[in-house]
Amino acid sequence: MSEMIQLVSTGKTQIQSVSIVPSTRRGCNAGCRSCIAHMTPGTTETKPSYCPLHRVRDLLDYGKQGGAMTAIFTSKSEPTLDYKDNRESFLEMMAMARDALPQVDMHTNGILLAENTDFLKDMYDYGLNMLTLSLANFKDPKNRAFMRIGSKAYNPYKIIEQANRLGILMRCSVLLTKQTVSNLSDLLFYIRAAKEAGVDMIVVRELWNAPETLSDPVSQWCAENFVDSQPIYEAIRAAVKSSENGQKLYGMRFEEVRILPWGTQVFSIDGVNVTFANCDEKCPTGTIKSVQLVPKTYPGEVIGWRMRGSWGNDGDTLG
Question: Which residue has the higher pLDDT, 42 or 102?
Fold first, then answer.
């Protein structure tokens, strides 16, 4: 467990973002092979409890006082399922987030957005101005095999096009795996395809490195398909040096943009912002990368909502 951090009262704590889990739902409509929330294959909770609005307000107050810029709608499942089942509550949370912070993001697999084009417009009207689409590969068969998507309507290009039309900042999240994107060549293809589709930003993630004691199918899949991001990261840094000398490596322009507070370099690759992320990133003392509002079950099956400074099961409880 990380060291407990005092919030706000010190006047020095910096919070980069806040994350809202809208409900207690633990069933997903995708079957991603690497799901670290263990929703593969998942279970369906027919009547999840939704986060009370006063707790959303508390979280946003913490974030605003700590300098947060972004509210992220995420889930142990899939946030668009929460929107579908309880539109009024979901959109009220989104409107509150937009009133408090300048950027409202949602992390999604996009399946329901592709099937229901009115969903994204509705969320935009209530404050959504950034969308992070989990997309394994721009080659449709590879993406469908990884996510095990059965919907014929699923088309990430249409989701990205609609986001662009609405003026929503568009980001893709890609996992490095031996089955999808496994080397620099694969990643550069992904970046080219993303740019052509209208994506502004890409975050490149490593697979969850499960403890050796876990033997479930997801953990085994992650261990067997793990790809180390470091060689790819170093190759991009080398390409930056070539670009500084006026050369285009791989026919693309590479630049360093800035360094994030936790030490991660932001690159511009042919105009697309690219960052690398993993589950073990450490922030400087006094900086919290994200404060999450998550459900917690108490004795008697009572559900409470608590703010935590870590996604881990033992993450620090902050409020």
Answer: 102
Which residue type is seen at 269? Answer: I
The answer, yes or no, to whether residue 313 has pLDDT greater than 70, is no
Give this prediction's pTM. 0.90
Q: Which residue in the block uniquely carries the two structure tokens 């042919």?
A: 270
Distance CA 125, CA 168 (A): 11
Asked whether the beta carbons of 15 and 288 are under 8 A apart, the reply is yes
Bridge partners (DSSP) of residue 252 are 249
**How many alpha carbons lie under 13 Å from residue 109 in its C-beta half-sphere?**
24
Angle, alpha carbons 6-62-102 (nearest 5°)? 135
In angstroms, the Cα distances linking 29 to 36, 45, 74, 109, 264 are: 15, 12, 14, 9, 32
Contact 104, 79 (CB under 8 A): no
What are the φ/ψ torsions at residue 184 (nearest 5 degrees)?
A: -60, -40
Q: Which domain holds residue 142?
A: 14-308
Of 113, 202, 199, 108, the residue nearest 154 (C-alpha): 113
Better-predicted residue by pLDDT, 41 or 216: 216
Is the distance from CB of 98 to CB of 104 less than 8 angstroms? yes
CATH of residue 227's domain is: 3.20.20.70
Q: Residue 61: count other Cβ atoms within 10 Å of its Cβ.
A: 14
H/E element, 125: helix 117-125
For range 96-107, the mean pLDDT: 97
User: Does residue 315 lie within any of the structural domains?
Assistant: no
Domain presence at residue 167: yes
| Number of domains, the chain | 1
- Classify residue 303: in a domain, yes or no: yes
Q: Are 299 and 307 in contact (CB under 8 A)?
A: no
> Considering the domain boundaries, does residue 236 fall inside one?
yes
Identify whether the C-beta of residue 110 lies closer than 8 Å to the C-beta of residue 132.
no
Q: What pLDDT is recorded for position 181? A: 95
Residues in the chain: 319
